[in-house]
């Protein structure tokens, strides 16, 4: 690595981060469709050429924003009931940064159009989320205890839908209720359907304090 | 009324309807922020001046689109359990026109920003919907049967959130499940909490066939 590279890399990284922060802010306020590369460059204090050096297209910038904001932590993934608890913990954590919550609300709605550059990304994100949550719900609930016609996938879709739908209500009227509390109350209603603690698969059924 | 007025009125009405149809289409595909008056005028085959004659601002056009699409029918409003059944019937009816469903998904997300011209409209729409549904849920359920910590407003928020959240999932993956069926299954899960049919207020508790 040359001296020049060593010197400029940190500047480049800092600039890249500034662009991502500014793009996140503008996309979450107005949506992807209504924001131009020129808007982001201006707000980030860069020339358009300077911005395009880091992100060659607006689409590449969008995908970088989504990737950046959807990274999981390094903690090991819990399973079954613990996973459901971790899900509400994550909602509570996310709600501390309403701008990012708004970003996902707005981009997921925009991306319903098949020609939106994040369409495939959101289709896959929801497919993965539904599959993952379905597996964890299946590990947590006793199918014999579920009401007729309700399966693990239905419950998984409800939990994801509640998190998304209550997000809209909470962002429009932030004083009216706490989203994570409401989702947690829903999970508490599922308690009668959980596997007994002394089931054959005790690894998945520990109910944490305060669940 | 002059002869001229009588002759031009139907043309004016037809033009107004064309503009509303085009605006609905463009707003539902790209969002309000990314669509200009010039885009709508071009697509509707009008000059900008011609469009502004009917809708003096883009904001006025948006509010006309929302008002037009959110009109209730003329049928009398049912109450209690019948209202909940009517709610899923309305979802099923709406899902037959996915473009309008997408319009509300996208505009409600955009309108979270306080400077969006439909912000107040959506805040009021959700406040009204939550209040109305809370009253109907309260008429349908027996508070003594509800799990601890769950009240009528919580259930009302869940039902609205399910309808909105499942909308995103169904629009992204139309083949995966039927939104109205899923919401109907949720209402069926509430059955143990309903007032007995022989309660003191029989007018609100009749459970329709197939509920």
From TrEMBL, chains A, B:
It comes from Microbacterium aquimaris. Keywords: DNA-binding, Repressor, Transcription, Transcription regulation. Residues 36-55 bind DNA. Residues 13-73 form the HTH tetR-type domain. The keyword Repressor applies. This is TetR/AcrR family transcriptional regulator. Gene3D superfamilies: Tetracycline Repressor, domain 2. InterPro entries: BetI_C, Homeodomain-like_sf, HTH-type_TetR-like_transc_reg, HTH_TetR, Tet_transcr_reg_TetR-rel_C_sf.
């Amino acid at each position: 690595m040359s001296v020049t590279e060593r010197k400029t890399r940190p500047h480049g990284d800092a600039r890249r981060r500034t662009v991502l922060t500014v793009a996140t802010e503008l996309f979450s306020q107005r949506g992807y469709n209504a924001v131009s590369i020129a808007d982001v460059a201006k707000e980030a204090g860069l020339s358009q050429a300077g911005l395009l050096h880091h992100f060659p297209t607006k689409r590449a910038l969008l995908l970088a924003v989504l990737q950046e904001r959807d990274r999981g932590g390094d903690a090991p993934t819990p399973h079954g009931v613990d996973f459901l608890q971790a899900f509400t913990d994550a909602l509570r954590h996310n709600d501390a940064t309403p701008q990012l919550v708004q970003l996902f609300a707005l981009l997921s709605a925009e991306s319903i159009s098949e020609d939106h550059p994040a369409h495939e990304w959101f289709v896959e994100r929801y497919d993965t989320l539904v599959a993952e949550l379905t597996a964890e719900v299946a590990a947590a609930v006793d199918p014999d205890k579920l009401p007729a016609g309700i399966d693990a996938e239905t419950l998984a879709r409800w939990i994801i839908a509640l998190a998304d739908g209550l997000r809209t209500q909470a962002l429009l009227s932030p004083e009216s209720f706490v989203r994570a509390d409401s989702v947690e109350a829903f999970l508490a209603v599922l308690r009668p359907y959980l596997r007994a603690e002394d089931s054959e698969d005790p690894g998945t059924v520990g109910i944490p304090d305060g669940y």
